[in-house]
Design brief:
Length: about 625
């Protein structure tokens, strides 16, 4: 099982590697869905790729925004080329055009379908498999049964979110940020308007009615593993290294626990849950959509930022002084939230149940029995920082050294299938005191800042010889450097020369008016009344009919006769519009009315996702009068 960690900064990348992540995903300075994360410049990304490989880990690059035609031609190739040449393991992609471009220009680079692609079923996953996608990150709204079916029917690698933020909308489908402020989530610039407060009809005051709690799927790891999930993904490229480190540690711990002991020995401790909640939570956590479809328990209406954990209860206030009782052990440096605008840092340790005083700002009033949340656990943060600083991450190496009179000194280092052999100066007969065997061994084991650790050392040393420690040290340094080169060499690739690209814009059928041409009015209809008006309007030149309306109007003979009559009256092209999200319910509805739907002489179909396109292919719609044109939009 792969534990996949986020890295918005290089410090977070190092924290993930040192805490047990098998792979890390990060963004560069272009095309990433988290444009406001730290992200990596070219030099830093190459450094991360090399470091990941030296420790036997992987690095995935996010290229998961929609990409404009000009960007594809002018920037995508040059952006990816240095990472590809240095062994980048995979790219996460949303844009189908980018997928085709990368497959053509970088044929050895694994492509993962980002959750931004909104893959909602086995149909869509199977479609992407035809075009070289090796892994799918399904829409986060899918159930465990849908994920299992996707794995069984396609055999693709499946990567699922287990920890971190959830969006109110399907990823890749939300236009909220773009509509409100011109910052498009599909261009990596989401302003998170769903985290703000709104007032709905009937509400007395505004609340965060669109903000979801973070997912914490520790309890569901056995189900996900048995469903065929290959990678557990932690969300959080905007999070700090401490958060990344602890989430990786916890998910590594419980994944290994299940793999070792199975369901019978699987139990999640409350302490580990509490540690994760202490680091970040939005008013609690939820288990995502794996076992539920929707529900108010997934929302966090009171607030959308870190809520901390309940830590103290106010007993009384006198002036600016609060007397409170600790609900959990508190430490010096902990931060308690008095109000959304006021925090207080503790100056002493307090045992659970102990009383303590807090000094609040002038004018602040806190009622008795008010619960205060701890929004920073200082001891936990320091513990994680110390673990990151002192963690030993080394690649095990087997070594063999040979020191014989008048023969070159030799050192062989092996790591897995990689092996290097170096030679140095020859030992000489000792004039006074022979070299100490134990000292030579100690020097050879000092791997210093290299990524290696001597796991076993076999040494052949002739008696009565002398060799300077400088020679031993140089032998070790040279061997370690060459082993690094040998390991990284396997990841090196070369790019074919990028072809010259025509600068003209792609030409195609367009409804945009040109000089001397009349404006064309197209209408998308969702109700029967809308269809009647559009069909009888002299100004409308094209009608798009939502599939649920088409299915409803094909439910009986009377409805079918009306839709046929309207079509004949309109004398203009009709297009059937498949759903924004195409899951099993949509498929069952269309299947049940498919024959009747096909009786309408549609000019074509408009599809909004790969599932719909795959569905039409499966129905061989393009080979019948049903569909002669397929228009794809996002």
């Amino acid at each position: 099982m792969e534990i996949l960690a986020p890295a918005g900064t290089y410090e977070a990348f190092e924290a993930a590697i040192r805490s047990g992540a098998d792979a890390v995903y990060a963004g560069g300075n272009l095309f990433g869905a988290r444009a406001y994360a730290g992200n990596f410049d070219e030099e830093t990304m190459i450094r991360a790729i090399r470091e990941a490989h030296l420790y036997g880990r992987k690095l995935y690059l996010t290229v998961n925004t929609l990409i404009k035609e000009r960007e594809m031609k002018e920037r995508l190739y040059s952006f990816l080329k240095p990472f590809y040449e240095n062994g980048l393991d995979a790219v996460l992609v949303q844009d189908l055009g980018a997928l085709a471009f990368i497959r053509e220009q970088f044929p050895d680079l694994a492509i993962h379908a980002s959750t931004q692609m909104s893959v909602a079923g086995a149909l869509g996953a199977g479609f992407l498999k035809q075009y070289g996608v090796e892994r799918v990150v399904p829409a986060r709204e899918l159930s465990l049964a849908e994920i299992r079916k996707m794995k069984e029917e396609t055999g693709l690698e499946i990567e699922c979110f287990v920890q971190g933020a959830l969006c109110y909308s399907y990823s890749g489908q939300c236009l909220f940020s773009s509509m409100l402020g011109g910052r498009s989530g599909n261009r990596g610039q989401c302003a998170q308007p769903c985290r703000l407060k709104y007032q709905a009809e009937g509400q007395k005051k505004p609340s965060c009615i669109l903000s979801l709690k973070d997912i914490m799927a520790l309890e569901d790891l056995p189900d996900l593993i048995e469903a065929g999930v290959d990678s557990f993904k932690i969300e959080g490229r905007m999070k700090k290294p401490e958060y990344v480190s602890e989430t990786v540690r916890v998910y590594r711990k419980y994944t290994d626990l299940y793999l070792k002991k199975g369901r019978a020995g699987y139990q999640v401790s409350e302490e580990d849950k509490q540690r994760l909640m202490d680091l970040y939570n939005r008013g609690g956590s939820c288990r995502g959509y794996y076992h539920v479809q929707n529900g108010p328990e997934m929302l966090t209406p009171d607030r959308s930022n870190h809520a901390g954990i309940h830590s103290a209860c106010v007993e009384r206030q006198k002036g600016r002084s609060l007397l409170a009782k600790a609900l959990v052990p508190l430490q010096k440096g902990d931060v308690l939230e008095i109000s959304p605008k006021e925090n207080v840092t503790l100056g002493q340790d307090v045992k659970k149940g102990g009383q303590f005083q807090l000094l609040v700002a002038k004018g602040t009033t806190v009622r008795p029995r008010t619960i205060l949340a701890r929004v920073r656990n200082e001891r936990l943060i320091q513990e994680i920082q110390e673990r990151i600083r002192t963690a030993e991450v080394r690649r095990p190496v087997q070594a063999k050294a040979m020191f014989c009179m008048d023969e070159p000194s030799k050192l062989i280092l092996k790591s897995g299938s990689f092996s290097v052999r170096v030679e140095g100066s020859s030992p000489q007969a000792a004039k006074k005191q022979a070299v100490d065997r134990a000292r030579v061994e100690r020097q050879l084991r000092k791997m210093g800042n290299t990524p290696f650790q001597i796991e076993s050392l076999e040494m052949e040393m002739e008696d009565g010889i002398f060799i300077p420690m400088q020679v031993v040290n140089e032998l070790r340094r040279t061997a370690a450097e060459r082993l690094e080169e040998e390991i990284l060499k396997q990841y090196k690739r070369s790019c074919k020369r990028v072809p010259m690209v025509e600068q003209e814009e792609i030409q195609g059928e367009s409804l945009i008016s040109r000089e001397g041409q009349k404006n064309v009015l197209s209408v998308l209809v969702e109700t029967k009344n809308q269809l009647r008006v559009a069909a009888r309007s002299e100004d409308v030149r094209r009608i798009y009919v939502e599939s649920h309306l088409a299915a409803a109007m094909c439910s009986n003979q009377e409805e079918r006769e009306e839709i046929q009559r309207l079509y004949e009256e309109s004398k203009i092209p009709w297009y059937i519009v498949l759903p924004h999200i195409f899951r099993e319910r949509a498929k069952r509805l269309l299947d049940s009315r498919w024959k009747a739907i096909c009786e309408v002489p549609w000019k074509g179909a408009l599809v909004r996702n790969v599932e719909s396109l795959a569905y039409l292919q499966k129905k061989k719609a393009g080979k019948t009068r049903f569909v002669r044109t397929i228009i794809c939009i996002h």
